[in-house]
Write a structure and sequence with these properties.
Rossmann fold, 7 helices
Length: 189
């Protein structure tokens, strides 16, 4: 397999801890830093997932529940921003005076802004289905992955090694379970 057939990703470092977060090729440290700068608010609702796990469906369901069945007006990212791509300023510009703000993110939960009153929905899916969906997703977004002709076997190897956007699917899920358990253990029920 040649380098041409592999998608390109960039490893960005958390400014305080030095931990690595993997982004698609067309993004940079500024995007990651801006996402980390966002301060979660008590009424925020975060839809968190590894890519291709059903995030869009979940965003639509949450929107419909919060807005009494009213459809999302216009483009989804104008109403439900993606924290790591749209940035903290844009997220803050979404009006939350009537309804809670819904924020999408693929960041591992350890990097998602936390507030003890905010709501966090973690979406996951069978890893085999995620891998196939991720492969076809990359076919449609070649520009953000370095204009490569993705080879399924090569992408599979990267996926298993955790060398794709937002790291390994398995560690993404494991981190979320650990954070959920920590939260439950520290919360009075």
């Amino acid at each position: 397999m040649t380098e041409k057939n592999l998608p390109k990703f960039v490893k960005l470092k958390h400014p305080d801890t030095g931990e690595v977060c993997i982004y698609p090729f067309s993004y940079n440290q500024k995007h990651f830093d801006d996402a980390l700068r966002y301060k979660a608010k008590p009424i925020d609702i975060f839809v968190c997932s590894f890519p291709k796990c059903g995030t869009t469906w979940t965003q639509n369901i949450v929107w419909l529940i919060i807005h009494g069945g009213e459809s999302i007006p216009g483009k989804m990212r104008q109403s439900i921003p993606m924290l790591e791509f749209d940035g903290s300023d844009f997220v803050n510009s979404i009006d939350d005076s009537v309804h809670p703000r819904i924020i999408k993110t693929h960041l591992p939960l350890k990097f998602v802004p936390q507030h003890h009153e905010a709501k966090y929905i973690y979406v996951t899916r069978n890893p085999k289905d995620v891998m196939v969906s991720f492969y076809y997703h990359m076919q449609g977004f070649r520009d953000i992955f370095g204009h490569c002709d993705v080879n399924f076997d090569g992408l599979f190897d990267l996926y298993i090694q955790g060398e794709v956007s937002w790291g390994g699917h398995f560690s993404h899920m494991t981190d979320s379970v650990i954070i959920q358990m920590s939260f439950l253990c520290s919360t009075k029920i």
